[in-house]
Amino acid sequence: MSDQAPVIAAIEMGGTKIVCGIGTGPHDLRAMHRVETTTPAETLEGVSRWLAQMKLEHGPFAAIGIGSFGPLDLNPKSETYGFITTTPKPGWQHTDVVTFFKQRFNVPVGFDTDVNAAVLAEHLWGAGQGMDPLIYITVGTGVGGGVLVNGQLLHGALHPEIGHLMVPPPVNSPALQPACQCPFHQSCVEGYVSGPAIARRWGQRADTLASDHPAWTEIADIMGHALMNLCLTLSPRRIILGGGVMDQPQLIPLIRSRLIHHLNGYLLVPELGRDFDQFIVQPGLGNRSGVLGALALGRLTLDPTPNSQP
Q: Which of 24, 63, 82, 168 could make an SS bond with 108 (beta carbons 3.0 to 4.6 A apart)?
């Protein structure tokens, strides 16, 4: 990216809320705004109105960056590039997000998953600086993961869908409804540890569970299995865990412990030995990872070489 930091409009699209921002980087985020995620038409119009107001107040922006819940079509050659595709979120299947904002504002639009956006921001400005490969996982309304390898966001036939990694079902679970809650799979991470899955399985929201509730041990075990698979396939230098469920201070230490248990001494590397406390960490940017990642996606449409400039 160039030294002359352009003003970017940033949109972090989540299943519960949309967070919008405008600025040039983490030290110049001039305004932020929240829009509830309702229907596509109502939600996108709400975001558009706010961006139009920001354009009046702060002047034109050079690009828009969007980090969205998925799955997404990220293939620029596809007829449905820029669409949300087979999301389980009712009403949002096959929503053309990129075209909506291109037509409204006539500027380049960067588009990727919300978690790929977050891993990019953490790599540039947060807890992932100097770490490559790097993984960011969010556990909240859903479970998603972004991956950065060799300085680039990982894309392929689609994009990483870490939340749907298969894991062993909990043995003798004390949950009120032990079954996986994913509508697509019988035993995947999201179906056990996302916020809605926790509420259905245990009969109460995650933020109301006591710190010593048995749910946390089970959640940590499931996450430990998922992280083991990621360690064995992607060999990350660091894994960042964000999202509302991860706000529990006792959870990351529990996850570290279960990961070590599941690996059973197989990987002998510093990240899983003397540096283990720095291997699985919280986001360095706090709850701004997603919106700052969207801002970074917008900057990449203007200059495809990321760096740590503000």
A: 63
